[in-house]
Amino acid sequence: MSDLSGRTTIVVGASRGLGRGIATAFAEAGAPVVAVSRTAAPFDEPANGAGTIESEVVDAGDATVPASLIDRYEPQNIIVVAGATPHMRRLQEQTWETFSVNWETDVRITFQWLREALLKPLRPGSRVVVISSGAALGGSPLSGGYAGAKATQRFITGYAQDEANQAGLGITFTTVLPRFAPLTGVGRPAVRAYAERAGMSVEDFLAKAGPLLTPEIAGATLVDLVREDAAKVVPAYVMNGAGLQKLP
Length: 248
Prior knowledge:
Layout: E1 9-12, H1 17-28, E2 32-37, E3 52-57, H2 65-73, E4 77-80, H3 96-99, H4 101-119, E5 127-131, H5 135-138, H6 146-167, E6 172-178, H7 187-197, H8 202-208, H9 215-227, E7 236-240, E8 243-246
Parallel strand pairs: 1-2, 1-4, 2-3, 4-5, 5-6, 6-7
Antiparallel strand pairs: 7-8
Helix pairs in contact: 1-9, 4-6, 7-8
Pfam families: adh_short (PF00106)
Keywords: Oxidoreductase
Domain Ketoreductase: 7-186
């Protein structure tokens, strides 16, 4: 598993933030990467020239897209990062439309991609990683239904692992729950909102948050996870700037 050169990796939501860092890291580790995003996002050539990145500008939430891309590229790794930026307001300031946006995007995308990974199915030894959020563990009172949607992503990933086990498919499904990543489009407004709620400066708030996660750290961490022996992989991890911590 240490050699990723023959393992096509689809990164769903690769245009920015953690997804972009993950796509870049897999290419630099030698993998042929398919970077799926709704908007075009040019990538630099991998630093060591080992892997490649091919962009697919599509709507990952379109129900026809997962089957089409899985059939075309026959990936052995799928990393699902795509999702909506939550509306950062207190509960009473939300509308149902803003409250439910992550259910209609993040959960739907996860469901459709994991469904197709099972239906195809992916070849034995394949890995599917769903990027959820640490908010799934402690809640997120300023982001509407975000925390619940992220918890449901974890549930769906666990259900997919159960189905794969029952069918003897040999596919490993894993959920990774990142803590604050202040350099991303989702992280920046969240950090500002929660710092203000706590009556703190952004700098002081981040200083208390522990090791901070960056797209580059997320990419390197996910490469290591996919390289790990499947027998040693647990169903879910928290991820921060120090790497992964296993969840029970």
